[in-house]
Structures are given as C-alpha cells and as structure tokens.
Predict the structure.
Amino acid sequence: MSFTIRNATPADVPAIERMGLRFVGSVAKYGTIFRATPQSMQTLAALFFALGEDAAVIILAVNSDDQPFGMIACVVAPQLIDGTIYADEMVWWVDPEARSLRAGPALLTAAEDWARGKNCSMLKMVAPIPSTVGNFYERLGYQPIETAYAKGLKATWIPSSSS
C-alpha cells in the first residue's frame, strides 16, 4: 500500500476521532489517566483547527483512497524559560496494521518541516513509559530533556498502582 502525507481538514474529524481513541486506548498508562471519548476527540480536533495553521497542525498519512491511517498533531508555543518559539507534539499515531509502511517516520519528518516553517527553535516529542520510542528519537538526533510525572488530584483519576 502506498501513502501520502497531507494536512488534515475538518472533513477528517471522524478519522482523527477514531485514531485518537485508538491512541489513548493503546497505551496502558494513558488509558488509566485520560478519559477519551468520541466527543473529547472531536473537541480536540476542533481546537487544533480553531488555532489555525500558524499555531497548530494535524498532519495525516493517507492511503491511496485518501483514508487516514496515521497522524501527528503539534502546537506552537513560546518556551517559558527563554521565550523562543517551539513546537510541541500532542499525539503521534499510526494504526498498528500499517506501521510496516514507515508512515510514522514520514509523519515526524513532515512535523519537523512544518515546525521549521513556523521558525520554531525545536520540536519536542514525548514517549510513553514504558516504550522504545525514546530510543528511536535519540537515533534521529533528539535529546532527552525531562521526564514528566503526574499525580491525580481528584478521586476520578486512579492510575494503576503497578509501575
């Protein structure tokens, strides 16, 4: 199967919703923390489109029938320490049955190009724990800069106790 990379449009929201739900459901820690619903995925996509191409983007990998099977979403923000502009990845997903196509690296390259075009000083990517994604990033020249920790502050957030 061949694929192309293109920016998402509002017509792609059903596919973004489907992939977003698969993304959250596929990573055990995310599934215990985030309560993704079809509506929350639609709201997230709407937010990206409302921010506009200068502040956010959802880039899709689509098959020859223009059906999305992968995505990367990024936002542009000022870095709080020194004010430089950078891009922050919010979601990066390729349907498991299509991962052998190498669409993931193509999406990452497209996101890097988009961020460069917005004069971003860096693209910050995240890796769920546990995963080998961090090793992949390092092979591409990314450097680990921090590890994030989360603590639930409401009874509705109860992550698994096994870590």
Remarks:
- Residues 3-139 form a domain with the Aminopeptidase fold (CATH 3.40.630.30).
